[in-house]
Amino acid sequence: MKTVDKALKVLDQFSLEKTEIGLSELARMAELDKAATRRLLVALISHGFIEQSAETKKYRLGQGFLRLARVREATVPMAAAAQEVADWLSEEVKETVHISVPAGSCMATLAHRLPHKGNVINISPGEQLFYHATAAGFAYMAFATDQTLTRVLGLKRTSVTAKTPTAKADILALIKQTRRDGYARSRNTFEDGVASVAMPFFLGQPDPAGTISIAVPASNMDDARRAELLPFLKQGIARMEQSLTGHITA
Asked: Is this model's pTM higher than 0.85 or not?
């Protein structure tokens, strides 16, 4: 594994649930030895991408990411556009909406919106949305290039719930179904009691720039409800692409 790949794997372990991580735990999570992990952390600290807490001695993400995030957002203001689309779509369908982008070993939430009602699906913005366990991931894989799909299929897969598909043959069959349907669906594969539909959006590149998903309590998702949601999901995709490219999706 190349040094850059190892460094990114270390960074990928941080989340809203794991904001600070000790050396031993971080090495275990990244599947690296402690000496290599320490060397990577020292290099990342020198560039401001990692900090070490003076009190706990644990490591956390540094402020170096803030500058790059500002540059990215100034170049392609995707987050603001995504939030507008998520707000609109959630208001229309009265369900949870999340917009995700590829982030190495998983999809990451870019924007989300919960509806104003009692029984809703909650979203943790920092949670890793595994490609093989989510509708967002399948929507991305199904419409990605062969090269990207090969890379994603090479990632380690673990079961998140009893329904999570992990066998390559099962995943390929679901990808085939997603391509045929034009959208991805999931039920209880990432979280028990949750069903989702998702579609990819494109910004002029061969691979999808991200996906838009609608998450519904599984007990409320049947063929009729899915049929109601899909036209709105398509409109959300069109709004996202038009907002970022200026082009109206046919």
From this structure: no
